[in-house]
Amino acid sequence: MEFVAAHDLDEALAAKAEQPDAELLAGGTDLMVEVNLVHHRPEQVVSLRRIAELGDVSPRRIGAGVTWSRLEHGDHRGLAEAARTVGSPQIRAAGTIGGNVGTASPAGDGLPWIAAADAAIEVQSKARGPRVVPWRDFFVGVKRTSLEPDEIITAVIVPEDVPEAQEFAKVGARNAMVISTVSCLVMRGDDGFRIALGSVAPTPIRAAAAEEMLNAESTITEAALDEVARIVSEEVRPITDHRSTEAYRRHAAGVLARRLVERSLR
Amino acid sequence: MNVTITVNGEPRTADVVASESLLNVLRDDLDLPGTKDACEQGECGSCTVILDGEAVCSCLVMAADAEGSEVTTVEGMGEPGHLHPVQEAMLAEGAVQCGFCTPGFVVAGAHLLETNPHPSELEIREALSGNICRCTGYGAILRAFETLSEEGT
Amino acid sequence: MTTPTRTHVTGGIGTSVRRPDGVPKVTGNFAYASDLHSKDMLWGATLRSPHAHARLVSLDIGPALAMTGVRAVLTQDDVPGLPLFGQEEQDQPVLCDGTARYWGEPVAIVAADDEETAQRAAASIVAEWEPLAPLDNPERAADDGSTFREMKIRRGDQNAVGTVVVEGVYETASQDQAPLGTEAGFAIPDGSGGLDLYVTSQWVHVDHRQIIACLDMEPDQIRCHPAGIGGAFGAREDISLHIHVAMLSLATGLPVKMEYDRSESFVGHVKRHPSKMWYRHEADADGNLVKVTARLLLDGGAYAHTSRAVLANAAFFTVGPYRCDNVSVDAQAVRTNNPPCGAMRGFGAVQACFGYESQMDRLAEALGVDPLDLRRQNAMRGGDPLATSGQVIDAPLPTIEVIDALESIPLPEPLASDDPRLLPGGTGLTTPASKVVRGVGYAVGLKNVAFSEGFDDYAEARVVLTPAGVEVHTAAMEVGQGLVTVCQQIARTVLGIENVAVVWDDTSHIGSAGSTSASRQTQMTGGAVHAASVGLRDRILEEHGGDELRNDGVYREGKRVATIDEICGGGPVENLVRFRHPETFPPDKNGQGDVHAGFVVAAHRAVVDVDPELGLVRVVRVDTAQDVGKALNPQAITGQLEGGIMQGVGLAVMEELIVDHGVIRNPTFTDYLIPTFVDAPAVESRIIEAPDPWGPFGAKGIGESPTISSTPAVVAAIRAATGKALTRAPVRPQDIVGI
Q1: What chain B residue is nearest to A6 in terms of C-alpha separation?
Q2: Residues of A with CB below 8 A from B105's CB?
Q3: How far does the CA of residue B67 sit from the closest CA of chain C (Å)?
Q4: SS (H, E, C) C283-316
Q5: What residues of C are in contact with residue B99 (Cβ under 8 Å)?
Q6: Structural domains for chain C
Q7: Are B44 and C229 within 8 A, CB to CB?
Q8: Which residues of C touch A247 (CB under 8 A)?
Q9: Do A150 and A245 belong together in one domain?
Q10: How many CB atoms lie within 10 A of CB A23?
Q11: Which end of chain A is more exposed for a tag (fewer CB within 10 A), N or C?
Q12: How many domains, in total, are found in chain A?
């Protein structure tokens, strides 16, 4: 195996330009599971752990190398709440938001926040420099993204208008260290409500119809909240697998959305 | 490839399969079998070590990526006659049964008390929720850390 | 047994002395089987069936043999002796015999210079399969007569009827023991054609019997050594990689190590039987049980293992710790193409308890009485016959006392916090306190101790006095439960000598201790150590004319008459005992007879907070009262009660092997969920001491009871909170929501 321990971004981009098939290693919490469990043997690996600039974080730009344990105490309430539910303390100390974005699991705990914030993914390549990809264009399927082979995820770009009122919730089959069955993130801002969900479709999604209904209401009544739950349950596209059923996921998605909208009003 | 890691204060070099885990390097190449292998996917905490100041699962650290790092394992926490307070408290409270999870609890628990010397019950439970114990039901482990929390370390 | 308890020996019975293996375990120095290695060793790996049921059309091991570093590739044709193994019935091929009968069945084994090469070589073997339809439905297996055992229990008036009748159908899922240490073994050739084997085990002698038969070897050619174990809970009572690692070592003449990873461990050991149970309880208007009718169906999977004994336990405990004169039980353990099942903590009693305690709650509701009062009213006591077999309980059975003690534990304060860690869903922040409903549930469970049905159950122990101290020799497996400490405590107390070491002997140096299962070792190996110590002490006292043995010698009327060196003048003094419990008998054709050697009763009360809308549960606390006979080591007892409860909670709310057409869909710790620190309830326990007639100092085996009634107590609490029937364990969120 060829291993590049990149010390800065240029070094990593150069390595990736030279070896587009090289696998990227940050916290190792996804790649090493593949190595250990399915005896995956990567031929080329570029480690990003030593690149200080990927660990930079500001309210508008979250470096891809920022770990969940740092995000737990970060500026964005919804993201901090989501960070607290990622794996275990040991996983949060190693795993990064960039890794979550790159793996693009439907159950990625950080992804509903990115969708609700209408954040974008900053990627860079040696050949073409940086580009910023809106999240909707970045996540294209189950564990599939529009990242080009020579590119590296460098940051999550947070729009200026991201509301401060943010509420996250995640249902899992145990009360800690669990993969989400359904997760939901609600933001309430001047432009109205935003509802994003995870584990209910191949990618993180926004509940557009529910948002539209809510944002047409002048006051949020109990009836409107019930309607949010109903519409969200219909909007999502979950599957039945060994972690849950389609019916439960639909139901729980609606309940979470309703509860978080209510919580955001307090 | 060769990697050099400072383990329990001592620089150690080993010829390793680059993609294998730090856990394997510790156990198979550096003759430090105290760190335990129970799931290899970061879901049990048995392999917890301190890597550059953070408690992490050594099964998820790529050997090649550990080059130049400082690692503390259970073997570096204390030894017979000079036990770490966490080790002593776990023995006193009967928090050790089969003992397979114990090295992970010792390392993760010592790290917890370094960052938070007086954790509450809920803080102890949450901070150690990445360490699975199948024998004790966690009651004796909780009592051990509550004692440590009261005393401060 | 009326041995006086010495008061001047420290570390004797009744005290919470520390484990002798504690310091090695906290410092990482304890050698588990998976830690064993040598420089020249090879690694073994296993090719497994990708089908639950398939015919092996062809097998080409050529690609593996051609790989550099591969030293041996073996198939069923290479098994030197009996090609089948099994603890009770030898029906499982050592390696696939042409038909795979479960997903993950071993097909071929490889030894290579390193672990990775061994795994790659195993994967390179080309197996051509013709998939066959798996028999994955246990009810169809029952209809087809595909059974390991069928039992019929008929007691009393089969035409008896009650005025209040409740019926229910209950199911429990398959549970994995999930010990943290996976299967591991190390085989070392002895240079004379034999082997020393170090394998994670609960019973080295029963392993040994099967291994020598398959290897076609004389007993003394293979020595099975007790090896360090990371938990067991039943998973290690049957053979896993033992024969494979031995075959590879014999074939290569080199030491061989095998170690399963977690996913292989899930297919590499037997599990708890999933069950379906049809129950009908009839009572008179005053609430006295008149008749219990039940049909029990356990899915044993592809091979027999201990299914026959598990079924017997489920059947004999169909009614639980209650008096009932008229009983009808039909029980079957069926053979399917699902993962093989065998021992797990509670061994059949877990499934039945979920059924009968769910029924007792239904009956209480139908009668309009308090569920605990109904249990007290019908409680079986010493002197009563067991409802199923009619065996009269010839020892105190404090059923009412455990219920009373449990009830005396104060209930927790109502939920008064918004801290998410105290709410269902935890830090997932799903549930506001306002959405939480609390429920309280109770259950009482009954379990036998040691082996039943006429099995020749014994444990051997040798107690040796040397000038350096006392050695207790045994082959009884210490799996974490603390037998090592209890053996020391018993020997200290009887001999009056503090310095006691437990020495594990291999199969060539001592006879069987029996299995570390069935809650039996404290009573059986503890009983052997007690008897051997008493015999040794009495002999020494007699020889030296003393009346007391102490650390430094024999005393008469307070004066020393012989030092330890003088006692050992002619070399170590020892006593070997083979200890048996009172004889048991096979049941007659109606399931009647003195089938069991002893009984333990326990009760649990669960308090849960439920979010009914999302179906999420937080188990707030599970309190317990249990009969322990005599508390030899109170701290170790607490550890068993709390640890067993957690496994019961696991089965109640999350633990389930999801098997689909015979394939396990969740063989990882990501998806087979075990309670974490956050999920573990608070526990308060009350210990009741109703001395056992034959346990050392009156002690009873206690390991399984905590797991038995904790599951139905938790489910009862969820029912109380939600009003849902919840007839299946584990209770899933969708069951509570009702979708």
Answers
A1: B65
A2: none
A3: 22
A4: ECCCCCEEEEEEEEEEECCCCCCCHHHHHHHHHH
A5: 21-22, 24-26, 30, 230, 480
A6: 22-30+458-580 (3.30.365.10), 33-133+195-228+236-252 (3.90.1170.50), 275-451+588-737 (3.30.365.10)
A7: no
A8: 734, 739
A9: no
A10: 17
A11: C
A12: 2
If you ran DSSP here, which 8-state letter would residue C413 be given? P
Go through the domains of chain B in sequence order and give each one's CATH number: 2-76 (3.10.20.30), 85-151 (1.10.150.120)
A256: chain C residues, CB-CB within 8 Å: 430, 614
Q: List the one residue out of C401, C406, C403 whose CA is nearest residue C686.
A: C406
Contacts of C524 (CB under 8 A, 6+ apart): C450, C457, C458, C459, C476, C513, C514, C579, C581
Report if residue A17 sits inside a domain: yes
**Which domain covers residue A237, as residue numbers?**
166-265
The mean pLDDT value of chain C amounts to 97
Residues A139 and A209 in one domain: no
The answer to whether the CB atoms of A248 and C668 lie below 8 A apart is no
Q: Is residue A21 part of a domain?
A: yes
Q: What is the CATH number of the domain that holds A192?
A: 3.30.390.50
- The answer to whether residue A222 sits within a structural domain is yes
**Domain harbouring A140, CATH code:** 3.30.465.10
Whole-number Å distance between alpha carbons of C335 and C101: 10
Tokens at C405, concatenated? 């003690």
Contact B62 A31 (CB under 8 A): yes
Neighbours of B97 (CB within 10 A): 28
Rounded CA-CA distance C715/C692 in Å is 31
Interface contact B64, partner C, CB < 8 A? no
Q: Judge whether A109 lies within some domain.
A: no
pLDDT in tens, C437-447: 999 999 999 99
In C319-395 the beta strands, taken as DSSP E runs, fall at 326-334
**Mean predicted lDDT score pLDDT of chain B:** 97
Q: Using CB atoms, which chains have 3+ pairs under 8 A with C?
A: A, B
B68 in helix, strand or coil?
coil
Coil/strand/helix, residue C679: coil
Separation of alpha carbons C561 and C546, rounded Å: 7
**C438 is written with which tokens?**
């609390």
Predicted local distance difference test score (pLDDT) of residue C1: 39
Residues A42 and A61 in one domain: yes
Q: What is the per-residue pLDDT across C146-180, written as a single tens digit (0 to 9) for each?
A: 999 999 999 999 999 999 999 999 999 999 999 99
B interface mutation test: which of C21, C23, C25 has the most B CBs within 10 A?
A: C25
- Cβ C425–A175 below 8 Å, yes or no? yes
- In single-letter form, the type of residue at position B42 comes to G
**pLDDT tens by residue, A132-161:** 999 999 999 999 999 999 999 999 999 999
For residues A86-91, average pLDDT: 98
What type of residue sits at position C712?
A: P
Q: What does the block give as tokens for B139?
A: 């009651």
**A27 and A136 assigned to the same domain:** yes
Question: How far apart (Å, rounded) are the C-alpha atoms in residues C192 and C653?
Answer: 53
SS3 C680: coil
Q: Do B42 and A90 touch (CB under 8 A)?
A: yes
Contacts of C145 (CB under 8 A, 6+ apart): none
Choose among C24, C32, C643: nearest Cβ to B97: C643
My answer on whether A13 and A36 are in the same domain is: yes
Tokens of C539: 């002999």
Q: Which among A81, A168, A171 has CB closest to C616?
A: A171
Q: Is the dihedral of CA C506, C507, C513, C514 positive or negative?
A: positive
The residue in chain A having the minimum alpha-carbon distance to the alpha carbon of residue B128 is A89
**What is the maximum span of chain C, computed from C-alpha positions, in angstroms?**
81
* C679 contacts A169? CB cut-off 8 A: no
The Cβ of residue A137 has, within 10 Å, a number of other Cβ atoms equal to 11
A62 phi and psi angles, rounded to 5 deg: -110, 115
Residues A258 and A182 both lie in one domain: yes
